[in-house]
Amino acid sequence: MTALQEVAPRERAGVRREALYFAVRNGKLVTGFGIVLALLLLGLIVPVLLGGNPNEYGTRPMSPPSAEHWFGTTTFGQDIFLQFGHGLRSTFAVGAIGGGIAAAIGMLVGFVAGYRGGLVDEILNMLTNIVLVIPTLAVLLIINAYLGIRSVSVQGLFIGLTSWPWAARAIRAQTFSLRTREFVDLARMSGAGTWRIITREIAPNMSSYLFMTFILLFGGSILIASSLDFIGLGPTEGVSLGLMLQNANQWSALQLGLWWWFVPPGAAITAIVGALYVANVGLDEVFNPKLRET
Amino acid sequence: MMLKLDDVTKEFRIGAFGGKSVTAVRNVSFDLGPGEVVSLIGESGSGKSTIGRMILGLNPVSGGSITFEGRPVRAGKEYYRHVQGIFQDPFSSFNPVFKADRVFGLIKDTYYRTVPGEEWARRVGDSLRDVRLDPGQVLGKYPHQLSGGQLQRLLIARALLLDIKLLVADEITSMLDASTRIDVLNLLADLKARGLGVLYITHDLSLGNYLAERTVVLRRGSVVELGPTERVFGDPLHPYTRELLAAVPRLHQEWADATPVDACLYHARGGTGGLMEAGPGHFVACAGLGTCP
Amino acid sequence: MSLRVSELKVYYRTLKGEVRALDGLSFGLADGEILGLVGESGCGKSTLGKSLIRLDGRMRHAGGTVVLDGEELPIADDRRMNDYRFHQVSLIPQYAMSALNPTRKIRRMVTELLRSRGVTLDTAELESRMSQVGLPREVLDRYPIELSGGMKQRMVMVVSTLLDPSLLIADEVTSALDVSTQKAVARALLGFRDSGYVKSMIFVTHDLALTHHIADTIMVMYAGRLAEKAPADVIVKAPRHPYTRLLLDSLPEVGVRHTDRRLTGIAGSPPSLLDPPAGCRFRDRCPIAGEECAEDPPVAEVAAGHYVACWKA
C-alpha cells in the first residue's frame, strides 16, 4: 500500500525530481554544462573585474601573455583578456537571442504543423520552405548594410528571424511520427486539449531533441554572427569573439605569430558549441529511462 | 440504443491540399446497447479501426452520423467520461518517458481534481484489483518494465475509473501471448456483466466469437454480414464470411475450403439494395458475383 | 537425420548481464520433416531460428553443436557460415515485406542476389516455382510496392528456396498476414517440402492451431528450453507437459463462447532469463509442481518420438 499512496499526487513533481537526480549523476551533462557555465561566468566577471574599454589602445603592443596581460595584447596594445571577456558576453548574447528566437519560432511552427496536419500544415510548410530557400546570409548582408546594425541584440534578432526553418522542419517531422502514437489518442481521451498534448505529451518525448535543436541554433547564431563580424558588418559598438577573429585576421596575426590573439576566441567558440553537444548526449540519457539503466 | 451508427462513411483526403480521396468506410450502420459486446471483424484495410476511431471522436465522419445516447459524437471531456478506447499496441499507448501510472493522473487532472489524494489512491487500487493487477507490482513503474498484458489491463483499469458506458477495444489482444490473452478477454466479458457496452474490433474470428453477442463482418469498408454471432458463424450467408471462416486454422479440424457459393444468397432471397434481413437480426449484403444483376 | 542440435546454448549480451535465450536445447529433425516451433514471446524460438543461420552482434554461442546432413555448422563463425547460408540453410524472416529493396524490380533483385552467391538465374525454374505458389510471371517486372503483403511473402519464399537448401527456417512468416493470405502462404510452404525444394523445415510461430495444420512434429519451448516435442496430433490431442496443456486450454476457437465455456490463461509470467531459477522453469506457474521440480527435469522420451521435460509427465 505504500507504493499506492504515492501515485497520483506526486506525479508531476516526481518526474522532475527524478530527472534532476539522474542529471547531477551524469558525467557528460555535468561536464558539458560546467564548461559552458565557466565561460559564461568568465564573460560576466572579467569585464567587471578589469574595467576599462576593451578597444582602448595600450602602450605595449604585440606582447605575449604575461602577468600583466594574461592573454597578451594586440598589434595596438589592446588587452586581449579584456576583449575576450567582452567578446564572450556578446557571443552568449547573440547565441541566446538568435538561438532563442529561432527555437521559439521553429517549435511553434513545427509543433502546430506536425500536430494539426492538413491545411494548416500545408500553409506553414510553404512558409517554412520560402524562408528556407531565401539565401539567409545574403539577406542578412543587405539588411545589415542597409539598416546598419549597431547592437548585438538587433543582430541576434535578425539571425533568429531567418534561421528557424530547418528547426521547424525537423520538429514537424518528429511531431508527425509522435502524434500517430496511441498515447496521444489516450491523452485526448483523457480530456487534454491540443496545447496540453503538445507540451505535456509530445514535447517531453523529444526534449533532448529540442535541446539539441536549441544548441545547434545557438551555435549557428554564434557562427553567423561571427561571419557577419568577420566581413565588417558586425555591431559597431563593443567586441565579439567574431570581431576578435576578424581583427586578428586583418592584422595578419597568424603570419606574425601572434597566436594569443586568435586562439582564445577560436577555442572559446569551439568549446561552447562542443560542450553543449556533450551535454546533449548526457541529457538524452537523463530523459530516456531506457538508457538510464546502464 | 446506446450507440448508433447510421450510414457512416469516411473519406480520407490525400495528396497536396487534399486533391484526392480514398473511401475507407462506406455506408456502415449498426448499433450497440448497454451490456452488449459487438465484435467488428475485418482484415487489414477493412476500415474497422477507422470506425473505432470515429466512434471515439478521434476522426470526424465524412458522411452519415454516429450518435451516443441520442446525441451526435462530440469529442470532449463529457463524452470521454462515458466512452473510452484501448488500442492494439500497449507499448505505444503509454508515453515512454513517463511512468505507466501517469494514465491515472491524467484522468484525475481532468475529471477528479477535487478528489483528495488518499481517496484517489484507494480508487486506483480498487480499479487495479478489478482487473486483477497487484497495485504494488505495477504502480511506479515505467511502461518498458511491465508486460503487454499488464499494460492493457492498466488501460482497462483507467477506463473503469470513469463513469464508463462504452469501451472501444481495438485489437487489444493481438500483441499479447496466448496464455495472457484470454485473461484480458475474460475481463471484457466481466465488464459486459456490469452493464458496459463493448465494441470489440479484431481480425481474429475465434476471439470475436468467444466474446460477442453480435458480429459485424467488414470488407473493404462495407458491412457484408451482420447478426447474432451464432448465426453469422453458424450459418454464414456471404461468400466472404465463409471464406474467412474456412481460412481460420482450428485445432481439431482439418483446413477445409469454403463451400462454393454458386448463387448470391442476397438476390436468391430477394434482396433489393442495402442489407437484406435473412433471418431475425441477421443481415447480409450482395455477394457481388458475376451472376448478380 | 537431417538436423541434429545438441545442448545448444546461445546467450544475449545485455548491459545487465547475459540473457540465456537458449539454455541447452537438443532436438533432431528428420529428412522431409516439418517441425513446428511454438512458444510465447521470449521463449527462445526466434533465437533458435536466428542462431541456425546468423548470430547477430549481441548473440554469443555459449556451447553445443548443430549438425546438418552430417556436417557441423560453424554457427559462431559468421564468415564460414556464408558458405552454408542460402545453399544449405535458408531463412524467411518475419517481415519479408521489408526484405525487398523498394527501388529494384523483382527480376533484377533476384538476379543480383543470385550472382552474389555465384549462381546464375534459371528463369524457367524460377517461373515454374512462382506459378506453384500462385504468382504470375509478370510479378518479376514489378516493383515490390506493387505487390500485396502475401505476394511479397511468397516471392521471398520462392527466392530463399531457389537453391534447394537442406533446411528452411520460416520465422513467424504468417503472423503479419490476414487469415485468408495466411492459408495460401502456409500451403505454399507445404508444397515446397512436397516438391523437394527443401528437405526439412522449421516453422516458428506463436499460433499453435496454425502449426498443427502444417507441421509433422511440434516442439513447445518454454524459457529457453524444450518443454515437449511430439508428433503434431499427439501434442494437440494428448499433451503430457502441464504447460502444453494449459496453453491449449487457453486457446479460444471458433465455436467456443465465454458463456458456454470460460477459458483461463496461465497465471504468472515466465522467469527472467538473466538469472533463471534452478530447477524446472515452469515451476512457479505450474499447478502440479512438487518437491522434485526444484531439480531440472531431464528430457525423457515417454513414447516413440514423444519427448517431455517434466517430472510429472
UniProtKB/TrEMBL annotation, chain A:
GO MF assignments: dipeptide transmembrane transporter activity
Compartment(s) where it occurs, according to its Swiss-Prot or TrEMBL record: Cell membrane
Keyword Membrane: yes
Name assigned to this protein: Peptide/nickel transport system permease protein
Transmembrane segments: 29-50, 92-115, 127-147, 153-171, 209-233, 258-283
Lineage of the organism: Bacteria, Bacillati, Actinomycetota, Actinomycetes, Streptosporangiales
Classification via InterPro entries: BP-dependent_transpt_permease (IPR050366), MetI-like (IPR000515), MetI-like_sf (IPR035906)
Cellular component aspect of the GO annotation: plasma membrane
UniProtKB/TrEMBL annotation, chain B:
InterPro entries reported in the protein's UniProt record: AAA+_ATPase, ABC_transporter-like_ATP-bd, ABC_transporter-like_CS, Oligopep_ABC_C, P-loop_NTPase
Any single biological process term in GO: peptide transport
Keywords associated with the record: ATP-binding, Nucleotide-binding, Transport
Start and end residues of each ABC transporter domain: 3-245
GO molecular function annotation: ATP binding; ATP hydrolysis activity
Pfam families: ABC_tran, oligo_HPY
Record CDD domains: ABC_NikE_OppD_transporters (cd03257)
Name of the protein described by the UniProt record: Peptide/nickel transport system ATP-binding protein
Biological source species: Nonomuraea jiangxiensis
From TrEMBL, chain C:
GO biological process: peptide transport
GO MF assignments: ATP binding; ATP hydrolysis activity
Residues of the ABC transporter domain: 3-248
InterPro entries: AAA+_ATPase, ABC_transporter-like_ATP-bd, ABC_transporter-like_CS, Oligopep_ABC_C, P-loop_NTPase
Keyword tRNA processing included in the entry's annotation: no
Key words, A-Z: ATP-binding, Nucleotide-binding, Transport
Gene3D superfamilies associated with the record: P-loop containing nucleotide triphosphate hydrolases
Keyword ATP-binding recorded: yes
Alphabetical list of PROSITE patterns matching this protein: ABC_TRANSPORTER_1 (PS00211), ABC_TRANSPORTER_2 (PS50893)
Name used for this protein in its record: Peptide/nickel transport system ATP-binding protein
